[in-house]
Amino acid sequence: MTGKPLASDTAMILAAGLGKRMRPLTATQPKPLVRVAGRSLIDHALDKLESAGIENAVVNVHYLADALEGHFKVRSRAPKIKVSDEREQLLETGGGMVKAAPLLPDPFFCLNSDNIWVDGPIDVFHELSQAWDADRMDALLLLVPHPRAMNYRGEGDFHLDPEGRITRRKRGYVAPFIYSGIQLVSHRLLRDAPEGPFSTNVLWTRAIEEDRLFGISHMGLWFEVGEPAAIKPTEEWLTRA
User: Fold this and answer.
1) CATH no., domain 10-240
2) Which sign does the torsion angle of CA 76, 77, 82, 85 carry?
């Protein structure tokens, strides 16, 4: 691999959600265990970490947590997995990162457990690492332009300026980039965080105001797999990718 080494040897995988949009498949299993193209969603993510050389994963759990922990016990491949237990209270994305922070180095990768993507010329973790600048950034988000966002039907999330700074889509307008669910995060982003459950958007808003939220455009494909209807077209795309 050319360029910078990985910015971190650890990734947090957000896997504690209730998976309501994936019902009825999540009536008896957590969303990360839903299978796409013969692999569970979380194994797709873990396999990508392994391929990139990321040694450690921290996974938060809440809904049907025992099933997820049992799944991890029978996985013998890298990365090594630690669990951040949210059984007592679901903390959302921001609160989940704050609770897991003692298990995470600075910086760390963070990704949603339902992400499926195809890498471009280099894997996404090296993509982020090559663009990372700890002096300027609280977080670096991997963004996807609409033509590379398979199954996506929304209006986008963000704009990028020429230096990669992020601004949000204005209501009533379309933004050119969709958040992939993958980011590289400094512990500085988590400072003075609210207590209890809250969205990462709270921290991103502050970082935008301070000109410290950045993004890069993913060079490969990304698949939104939020509903059962997205599974079949994703599997068809993957056979062609």
Assistant:
1) 3.90.550.10
2) negative
User: How is residue 49 annotated by DSSP?
Assistant: H
Q: Which tens digits make up the pLDDT trace of 112-144? A: 998 899 999 999 999 999 999 999 999 999 999
For residue 115, give the nearest of 197, 218, 2, 212 by alpha carbon: 218
92 close to 106: Cβ distance less than 8 angstroms = no
Tell me the C-alpha to C-alpha distance, in Å, between residue 110 and each of 12, 146, 170: 5, 22, 26
Burial class (CB in 10 A: 0-12, 13-18, 19+), 25: middle
Rounded to whole angstroms, the Cα distance separating 19 from 32 reads 9
Q: Where are the domains of the chain?
A: 10-240
CA 113, CA 96: separation in Å to the nearest integer?
Answer: 13
pLDDT digits (tens, 9 = 90+) for 200-219: 999 999 999 999 999 999 99
Nearest in space to 63 (alpha carbons), one of 99, 91, 94, 44: 91
What Cα–Cα distance (Å) separates residue 141 from each residue in 130, 163, 180? 13, 13, 8
